[in-house]
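Q: What structure does this chain adopt?
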Amino acid sequence: MLPYEHIIVITKESKIPVYRQIAISIINAIRDGTLQAGMHLPSSRELAKTLGVHRKTVIAGYEELEAQDWITVVPRKHIAVSEHIPLLKPQKWSDPDTGIQTPYLHNLNVPFRVVETHPVDENAISYADLIIDDGYPDVRLSPIADLLKTYRSFTSRKHTIKNASIGTTQGTLKLREELVSYLSVTRGINLSVDNLLITHGAQMSIYLAARLLLGDSSAIIVGRPNYPVADKTFEETGASIIEVNVDDKGIDTDAIETICKRKKIDAVYVIPHHHYPTTVTLSVERRVKLLELSKQYAFAIIEDDYDYDYHYSSSPYLPLASGSHSGNVIYIGSFSKILDPSLRIGFMVAPANFITQCTALRKIIDVGGDGYMQNALALLIKEGELKRHLKKAKKRYHQRRDFLDTLLKEKLSKYVSYTLPTGGMAIWIKLNPDFPITQFITNAPFKIIRWDADRNAFRFGFASMDETALAQAVDALETRLTKPERLF
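A:
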């Protein structure tokens, strides 16, 4: 038997639970080839004895690995490494050769393209009392009051006033230092403050990455369907946008491979957790294959992990940025989905040279962020308030997801179909063909923020609604669906 006491590293002082340390160690051993596909692992009893931990701790670790498809468990027979995972060698952000290579980077004097826009007819907008959003957090649960209290206190102290505007173009040092620890513990990303850029939300990060990676002769692969604002951002650079289908396992990496064999691809944009709008999660097999393809065909991966923190069946999969990325992953996250959509603080993790380029470009459009707010957020993270909020919010959102699932099955099962997402804040609901969504929403007593005519589907955001509001929303949908004369 392999020396698992050396393969699995448990640090008692670590903030990461022991069962997760076991899971992460096994994942790393699979990635670097120490544990091969199909190899049998020791039983929970054997491993517990080897590591000197309780058997239930090992069982929890194995359950985590099975939920994320890293291992296969055959009850009363064996536990084995999954047969479907390619083997890759992990690389840390801090390695000297890590970094998106300069051929990806365009000069900062690339002319800005003007995209034709059309004015919005305000009279055509339905200002319904009932709004079904596409997945917003419940601000009532958020520690915004504590955050603002800290903010106000900083504006009355001499030393905080003096330091509030220092280094805000890249992000205050305090926030970046806290994020280094936070992202390491929650996402397994090994980074330094030089790998971080604080932005005004995920959209700014997408914009900056697109500006540096793409130009008129570039090509980027995106999912179909996809986050429309990201598509518009890529289109604005002049790059060719190539769509690849998204199925129940996420973006189709076999299709990406086929495209790469015949065409130079500069970047792939992927939403690994709770894909927007379909809510599916990218499988482990496809995650690892995407990293392999990135290395083989030298394209960058823009990993938009906007919805990482809310996963209900198990802990979230580790990001692509925590694996064997060879410096080709640009990892994007946001606090808007955690705290408040109006709190525009996001972050980008990338090789230091790319962060330097992004910081320089950012100066052209924005001299910096709100130093007071960034430092207040840093304190919120440091004192553990963010972690406590996430624990409370995740439990509440999980309950609301299940409550909505029950309502939909009881009242709308004849009219809609959906796959219950493993996490996130919305359900992607498909209407039966007999009920075209364009007519369904016309003159309706409600407003749906995100709908798709081609797929006859819409997103039902459940996190921001309590049980009473969810029941009212489903009743409104049921009334609309059961009254055909209101549709046609």
